[in-house]
């Protein structure tokens, strides 16, 4: 049973989260073009499910980074998978979570194939289920510790997704940019420029309008610059939820639009 003091603390926490969320939305709208809407994905890594529920209750429209707690949260939440993607978990991920809206970290054909199998299985059991959107993750900084395909491999992977994975939809491209570049230089972050250039080259190779393919880039420290350079999907964590607790051996995350 929740005590009066606990209820008061939860209400105060919810008020802070909603205020932070509204401020971020305002900053996004100020930076965005009137003709190009930008989706906010709220990243609640290591935060409790109550934080996500508080935001959802206030907004009724939420894109969140996928949490282990997803089954106990409202089915209307549109979940984004953003973290490192393991091939052996892809089929289950795509099959077991009907409201998984997009996987943002596809960097290899075998992962796309596994997601395809999972979503095909889900749709065979539930014809009303939607195709699974995917972003191709690109390692724009060339750092060995970062996931993502090389920019030169992005077209090949995109062609595989569009040609061999009928239950997936290529939504666009994602990068985890070098935040130091955004903070220490007056020049545009080169990671954002490379992702935009990669998207444009792939679009040409696919015979598509570049504007049909989204750019997921920018986080709490640099999302406004990312929007100026073409981002349509930004992933905001600490600016909404506050600093994360110390790292542990395992991690989960959550995000919102």
UniProtKB/TrEMBL annotation:
<keyword id="KW-0663">Pyridoxal phosphate</keyword>
<comment type="function">
    <text>Pyridoxal 5'-phosphate (PLP)-binding protein, which may be involved in intracellular homeostatic regulation of pyridoxal 5'-phosphate (PLP), the active form of vitamin B6.</text>
</comment>
<dbReference type="InterPro" id="IPR029066">
    <property type="entry name" value="PLP-binding_barrel"/>
</dbReference>
<dbReference type="InterPro" id="IPR011078">
    <property type="entry name" value="PyrdxlP_homeostasis"/>
</dbReference>
<feature type="modified residue" description="N6-(pyridoxal phosphate)lysine">
    <location>
        <position position="45"/>
    </location>
</feature>
<protein>
    <recommendedName>
        <fullName>Pyridoxal phosphate homeostasis protein</fullName>
    </recommendedName>
</protein>
<dbReference type="Pfam" id="PF01168">
    <property type="entry name" value="Ala_racemase_N"/>
</dbReference>
<feature type="domain" description="Alanine racemase N-terminal">
    <location>
        <begin position="33"/>
        <end position="245"/>
    </location>
</feature>
<comment type="similarity">
    <text>Belongs to the pyridoxal phosphate-binding protein YggS/PROSC family.</text>
</comment>
<dbReference type="InterPro" id="IPR001608">
    <property type="entry name" value="Ala_racemase_N"/>
</dbReference>
